[in-house]
Every structure is written in C-alpha cells, then in structure tokens.
Amino acid sequence: MVQKYQSPVRVYKYPFELIMAAYERRFPTCPLIPMFVGSDTVNEFKSEDGAIHVIERRCKLDVDAPRLLKKIAGVDYVYFVQKNSLNSRERTLHIEAHNETFSNRVIINEHCCYTVHPENEDWTCFEQSASLDIKSFFGFESTVEKIAMKQYTSNIKKGKEIIEYYLRQLEEEGITFVPRWTPPSITPCSETSSSSCKKQAASMAVVIPDAALKEGLSGDALSSPSAPEPVVGTPDDKLDADYIKRYLGDLTPLQESCLIRLRQWLQETHKGKIPKDEHILRFLRARDFNIDKAREIMCQSLTWRKQHQVDYILETWTPPQVLQDYYAGGWHHHDKDGRPLYVLRLGQMDTKGLVRALGEEALLRYVLSINEEGLRRCEENTKVFGRPISSWTCLVDLEGLNMRHLWRPGVKALLRIIEVVEANYPETLGRLLILRAPRVFPVLWTLVSPFIDDNTRRKFLIYAGNDYQGPGGLLDYIDKEIIPDFLSGECMCEVPEGGLVPKSLYRTAEELENEDLKLWTETIYQSASVFKGAPHEILIQIVDASSVITWDFDVCKGDIVFNIYHSKRSPQPAKKDSLGAHSITSPGGNNVQLIDKVWQLGRDYSMVESPLICKEGESVQGSHVTRWPGFYILQWKFHSMPACAASSLPRVDDVLASLQVSSHKCKVMYYTEVIGSEDFRGSMTSLESSHSGFSQLSAATTSSSQSHSSSMISR
Q1: How far apart are CA 572 and CA 594, in angstroms?
Q2: For residues 577-601, average pLDDT
Q3: d(Cα 357, Cα 504) in Å, to the nearest integer?
Q4: For strand 665-675 and strand 526-531, is the pairing parallel, antiparallel, or unpaired?
Q5: Tens digit of pLDDT for each residue in 454-504?
Q6: Which of 10, 102, 589, 604 could make an SS bond with 241 (beta carbons 3.0 to 4.6 A apart)?
Q7: What share of the chain is helix, strand, coil (3-state, %, to 5)?
Q8: Closest of 697, 627, 708, 598 to residue 272, by C-alpha
C-alpha cells in the first residue's frame, strides 16, 4: 500500500531571500539532523544572469534501523538524489528527491516548495508532499514502512526548528537582510559607485544561489515539465499550519496530512460546499485517522444532512411547546476547559409522556437541534477562549430515574437517537458526567452501552449518590460558581424541571404515524436504487423549447453513468423493478425503467448530453437548455468497470472494486426542477440549484463547473 503525506502551508515571517540564506547552511551536512551524514554535488547549473540556479546532490543517510535488518539488507547507509531549482526572479525554490538505494524494492518521492506568501511579500511559505511505496523488502515490508514513517515524521517536526535555528545564527552574525535579485542590465554602476555595486553583486552571487541549493531534500527545475505549480495558496484552498494549531489543535504531521488529503478530496467531489475543517477532523478522529473509513461515514452523513435539511433546522424548525415545557435539558455556561456545558435532568423527565405526546421523530429532531446548537457554541467558544474547542460536556442528573424510564418504546426511541447522533456527530462529546446514578441505572446501561462507540464510552464518568461532591467529583471539571442549584450549587439553572406530561396531550398511534411521516418526508430529494442492467429513469415533459432542466444529485453508493435523452413520443407507463428481483426495500429502493427494450437509440430517442461518469461520494449539479419540446429522460445507469486493454484477464484492482459493490447495486439521491423559458434570465453559468448547499457545515468556497455546449455540469 502506498503511504502518502501532504503538509499544511507553513509560514515563515521572514523574506524569501533570508530564508534561503538560512537554508543553505544545512549543506553539505546538518548537525541538527543526525541521520544526514553528508552530501556531494553531482550536477550544477547557473544562468548567465544568476536568476536560475539548479543543483543536484547525492545525499548520504544513516537510517536508524535494527542492526539485523541492515545486515540482511547488506547496507550501512541509504543514498538519496535531490534536485533543488532556485528561481531568484520569481522568488521560488522547488525541491525534488528520490531514493537511489533499493529503488527496485522501495519507491520514495518527495516534493517541497518555498514561495513568497501571496498576501505579504516579506513572508515565505513552505509546503511539502511525499509518497512511500514498498514493493518488497526481504519479508520485512511492514517493519521498513514503520521505520520510514517514524523517521520521516520526526524530520518534518524538526524542519521549521532548523530554519529558525539558522535564522538566529544569521542574526547573531549581524545578517538580518539579504537583498533581492536584480537583473544586471537594470542596475548600471557609475564610476563612483562601482565598488558598492561589485560588493552587492558578490553578495547576491553567494547568498542566494547557495541558499537555493540547500532548501530541501527534493527539488524541481523550473524548466522541468513535471515541476509542481508554485504555491499560491490562500486560506480558502490551503491550510496554514498556524491556523491548524489555533483552530484545530496540535496534530501530528501524519494527522495534518490526513486532514489535508480528505479536504482536497471533498473539494474535488463536493465543489463549493465542503464541511468546515473542524467537522472533517471529527470524522477522522472517529476512525483513528483512517482516511478511507472516515470518508465513507462522512459521505453518508453529508447525504443524510442534505436529504433531511439538517443544516437549516435551527432557522426553520420551532420545537413544540410540549418540548419547551417538559424536556428537562438545556445549555448552561461552560466547563473548566471552555467546552459548552449541556445539562440534562433525565431522572425528572417523563420520557414515556414525551414519546406518547410527540412521537419518536419530534424527539429525534429536537436532539438534532441541540447538537447543531452545540456545534455553533463550540465555534463561539473557540474564538472567546483563543484555543480549539470542538466538543461539549454533558451533565446528566439521574435522580428520580426508575422503572418508568425503562418503558420499551422509550428505550427504543433513545437507542435510535443514539444511533443517529453517533453516525452524524462523531467526537462532539468531550465528557459525560453522570450524577446520582440509582440502582436501576445498571439495567439501563446494559441496554444502551452496546450502541455507544468505544471512544465515546471512555469519556463517561459515573457517580452514585453524592460521590460527585467528593474528591475527583464535579469540582474537578466545573467551576464552583456555575454548579447548578439543584446539585447544591450557587448558580440558578434555567433548565426546565420536567415533570409528568398531561395525558390530555397524548396522541393516538395513527396521529403520531401521520406526523412522523410528515416530519421526515419534508425533503425535496428522492432516493433511487440502480442495478446492473436496471437503470433508474425519470420522465420530464417539455412543452416550450428553451426551457431549462436542472438537477442536483449525490452518488451514495457505487459508480454510475448519468445520461439525458430526448424522445418525440412518450414512453410506456413507468415499469418499477420488482422488489423481489433485487431485494429492494421501500421507500429508499425506488427503481423505474422508462425506455422500452425495443426502442433504438437514434430512431426512437436521442442522446442530448455526453455521458457523465460519477464516482461514489460525488455531488453533481447541472442544467440543460432544451432545444425541442417533447419528452426528456434523465437516466442513472450502473457503471461497469472497463476491461483491461492490455490483457483479456481482469485486473486485480477491477475485481476488488467490483466486489465492493454488493449485488451490483448503486444508490443515488436526486432532485430535479424545470425552469420555464419565460422565467429564465441570465447566462447558463449563473444557473445553480438553490437546494444543494451544506450551509451550516460549509466553508465559504467558490463553486466551479464544467461547461458543455448546451449544459453545465459541476461536481
């Protein structure tokens, strides 16, 4: 498996030329990097005007590996080839490195880049990426991978410290400024100033090129076709290391890399509406920074949020009066770590009465609104306290808990709520303080605990009786001044006291069922299943030419091909695929075919857009200006893996990918709309679906699109 690393943008608040002067002191060897034994220059090139300086070195490394492994490998040192390409005119240094030793068994590539900060020309940005691919290594592949990753991350941590060390060294020597490169022809010298000009030219010739040689263990010649683009990142498309530390916390280099890579993937597949960085980080933490697992659960959560319009719940939904009066929970200041504090008096709450009066869905929606408010408060506290706060503390008072709370429908509702919250709000609970747990609590805990993630369970602190008042109790986590009055504290708590819900507010099962259906079908999106040989199709009739068909869909599972067809005659009535044929379950398994098997493409119907292949997890928005009236068919079709061109045998990757799609089944969630020609104003590029954004969880990013002759599709 290939291991990859991508750094955030690290900013030095020093001019580019001074950073280069500090960096050149790392060569030919650097005592601050013990494993870097030395280096020899292999090739060197300088342009006539001194603006371009390319140098290639062979670096000798003493890798800290077990003696037995070195003996088996038959080497004491490992050699790398690095190429540094300095462009003093553009003020950039590109670095490229690869391993020479065991290059047929292990492939290591590193790319680094120093550039001028896009918003401050007196600051310098640094960025690096690397990849490690171990093909084989005498049966020690896993060991070698661990050693390589450990030593690489260790050197990453030292990188900025080393530059700052040499900057201090330069300052001690009285060097605090290095002039920029200037073209020789633009700085003519008079006789009276010839000596000073020569001195300046000598300074430029020595400091800048030498600095350029030493910046990284990798470099790219400016003229090289494979050279990476200069870093011109902005806060919108790149993450700054200082920003990460201030708003996201202390992350290891590999954790930073996981965050950046997952963020880049989301930018590519969910353009214009990616979640905020702290929310991406929560999903990574929930899966121990396994990118594939985090990406899977995050895509499912984003689809769920979009389908149920969770982003707008705080603005568009008002809790019923019954909840406001009898739900014994509310926000109450913050704990000693600055986390928002939520107080829940579960023992005083009539869970049975609330379920009978409101149903499961209203309770679930209320809990979702609490979590959304928690996310908002975390952002506020991060600004107030000047440090990252990404979770909240929950204080649960169980005084009054009895067998009434173990009413089966109530427990069922609780388990469902836990399941939804665990899936969509991972790593938001920083600490759970359970106070005054009665004898019946172990019974409830036995029912609930299997549904709670292990990481979350480790954050639980349970106190029986008045134990919370002793050592290691509540005062260790909450300031004395804000302990609620019902816990013998001094602070008045405005959380409702709960109590029994009047039976006059109870509703019949039929009433609750109808309202529940209304609550969770308030979505403009529809779900459909797509199978191999059974696409899903919808029909749109257009009366006036030049109307605009718009669409917005997410690929929830598998890969699909999206097509648009036109026919002058109406297809036969929709044929729904039988539920038994593909084990489709209602309501999320809708599958409809409209195009009759006897129809021929080009005779009975025609394709009006090029097929669009959409990968799992992608979000697609687009539109089509109709040229003719008639019937338009939007089709989502199963995407089969292409056969390998070089061989009749399938590739291993193709076989594995096909096995991941169970029963050749894909899922899409879509929304379509037709805008009449009389209502359409503006150019095609201005057309965007107003229902496709993740407003609350999205950073302000710019939507981009790929335009076709008559339609626009953006992903």
Answers
A1: 7
A2: 63
A3: 9
A4: antiparallel
A5: 888 889 999 988 888 888 889 999 999 999 999 988 899 888 988 999 988
A6: 10
A7: 35, 25, 35
A8: 697
